[in-house]
UniProtKB/TrEMBL annotation:
PROSITE patterns: GLUTATHIONE_PEROXID_1, GLUTATHIONE_PEROXID_3
Record carries keyword Oxidoreductase: yes
Name this polypeptide is given: Glutathione peroxidase
Gene Ontology molecular function terms on file: peroxidase activity
Gene source species: Pseudosporangium ferrugineum
Length: 156
């Protein structure tokens, strides 16, 4: 099983159908709109715009587990992301990433790697569904290590 086999809802409702991303590089990021790291949305959107035609998908996963920094409902989150950061990459429904209510997506991503530290932790998933790298929340979307990891996995 990989993330491509996990069921998760899209933010606006219905299935996010992660299987459609099989064969792509997927950057999964747990996001929040009231966090000091929220400005990373702009960098994530820029990264998505730069590489989406080569097969990168940025997948934002709202989570309210860290300081209650994503309290809004689906419509509020979607509007915030579009109005403030012009987000066009897909967003899932709000889920828990740690603890007994951890969503199966994060069970697959984390494996034996322990809990997430905070909002905006990043997982790079290879086209075959294997987790290729994990980056801490402070890693900016334009960080050379993150970009290099993505570029290495993208088709030429």
């Amino acid at each position: 099983m990989t993330i491509f086999d996990v069921d998760i809802d899209a933010l606006p409702g219905g299935s996010a159908d992660l299987g459609q991303y099989r064969g792509n590089v997927v950057l999964v990021v747990n996001v929040a709109s009231k966090c000091g790291l929220t400005p990373q949305y702009a960098g994530l959107e820029k990264l998505y715009a730069t590489y989406r035609d080569r097969g990168l998908v940025v997948l934002g996963v709202p989570c309210n587990q860290f300081g209650g920094q994503e309290p809004g409902g689906a419509a509020e989150i979607e509007e915030f992301c579009q109005v403030n950061y012009g987000v066009t990459f897909p967003l899932t429904a709000k889920v828990e990433v740690n603890g007994p209510g951890r969503h199966p997506l994060y069970t697959e991503l984390v494996g034996d790697g322990g809990d997430l530290q905070w909002n905006f932790e990043k997982f790079v998933v290879a086209p075959d569904g294997a987790v290729a790298a994990r980056f801490d929340p402070g890693t900016q979307p334009d960080d050379e290590r993150l970009v290099s990891t993505i570029e290495t996995l993208l088709p030429r």
